[in-house]
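Students often ask why we bother predicting the structure of a whole assembly rather than each chain alone. The short answer is interfaces. A chain on its own may look different once its partners are present, and contacts between molecules only exist in the joint model. In this exercise we take two input lines together and write out one structure for the complete complex. Read the inputs first and try to guess which parts will touch.
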Amino acid sequence: MVTPSTNARRAGPATGSRSFLSRLRDGDEVARLLTLLFAAAVVLITVAIVYQLWADSALSRHKFGWKFFFSSVWDPVFDQFGALPFIYGTLVTSAVGLCLAVPLGLGAAIFLSELAPPKVSDTLTFFIDLLAAVPSVIYGLLGVFLLVPLMRENIQPFLKAALGFLPLFSGPAYGLGFLTAGIVLAVMILPFIISVSREVLLSVPREQREAALALGSTRWESAWKVVVPFARTGIFGSIFLALARALGETMAVTMVIGNTPKIAASLFAPGYSIAAVIANEFTEATGDLYLHALIELGLVLFLLTFILNGLARLLILLTERRGAEVRA
Amino acid sequence: MTVTSNSALSFNFAPVPGAAGRAPAAELSLRMSLAKVNFFYGSKQTLFDINLGIAAGRITSLIGPSGCGKSTLLRTLNRMYETLSHARLTGEILLDGANILAQDVTQLRRRVGMVFQRPNPFPKSIFENVAYGPRINGTSKDLSEIVEASLRRAALWDEVKNHLHKSAYELSGGQQQRLCIARALAVEPEVLLLDEPCSALDPISTAKIEELLVQLKETCTIVIVTHNMQQAARVSDFTAFLLNGALVEFSPTPQLFTTPADPRTEAYITGRFG
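Now the answer. The structure tokens for the assembled complex follow.
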């Protein structure tokens, strides 16, 4: 996960001047070893997870090899397993979720940090943080009982009428599907984006706002042209935190995505995500190969998160460099 | 021309003839004037009945101990106090005869620029920092000309002309502060407010900025807040001494520092408090 990094550099231990034992007595060395242990634990846990996923997916890896990533057949009866529809479903629902949640979330964060009176901002932030604490099964239930009928009877027919010439918005309106799952994800990740972005925006030095205002900026110009660019790295951080949650979200997505391992161009079509298929089929995976294929899907999800976070860091590095040497 | 804070007429000093130790009165006109300005932060009053005139094309310095209200007073001149909630101002502040409290605040701030205590460049290139103001104001002129002219006026051009597209954060503190002055000048303000602009700088950078201010007053009216009395004595034409939110004395600088009229001013400038 990309969060604003806290690279507090540890002052180098004063080796030579004092013995290990005297430093141990002071507690410095104890604190160093203890915190080192905690930090190392994080790495160890990650390595252990990857190892376990790798080891327990051996059968599937050997049988399908790279084909696992490119095959869209998922047939437990004939022991044929391919991950493509699940990868597709995971990426599409997360993308829809981000496309909806980022503008909304950023807009709300700018309002809360720059424009709203402090009392209003604090009250709203309390409710937003509450929203982040709602269990995902609740979002799933709301999705099934409120959103799905609404999508089927109102929103999807409307989109079809307005934008039906795009393949994205064509096909029969089932209610369940990529779009519905994406909307539920958007609602679920919105509080993360708002809450973290607001904190990041609030931490922008007051002097930056004043500099902009003193040059005759309106409050909006100060917010959009100075404060947001200053906070860019942290805002990206909030977005990728949200993306990580969207990629791995299981319960709510399972309830509204339609659970059909198919790739379709239309967002109205039902699909499947990696997390959803693991949750749904793990208990009924009777054969060893079936089980190993599901575990390999877990490995794929892990890699996907890993790659997307790597790309995110790269993006941040690139924009930072561009910020340093912008051309007129 | 020595005034006390309670004299309602004190701000209206321009026509007063024959004050000793300064340029002939005929040359002086008022760019800004404050009349009976009171400032409240919540229920606490921090400025009391301030009457003050800011002479055009001169440097006016505001001095006084910490918490005397000199920065607050400066921030009334471009209404920067409005960024604080619970802030309230009464009285009248005129810029070229028009009440600034009734004007559009963004227009006002284009005419009354400000430089802050700590250098606060944007995390953009040197060029983009200076171009920011003209850009948001939608200037029709050539941006690179404005940028060059502003950097020249801020005496920074020769040091940065070969790396205008480097980050402003790569400059030294003193250079950053001159960049902030250039950024403020790019909007071509009539008045430039400086809030302790040298307090975070070394003596050499401070000397450069002081020299720069003296050059700038030919084209710009300057008001500077400083906690450094020597600085006020070196650069300014007029000095106002504030204490506990009230204007104690306002005189031509040489007069205030050599023959202060108020015993409190004398106590402060001789270092007995503050």
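Check your guess against this: The beta strands of chain A are 74-75, 80-81.
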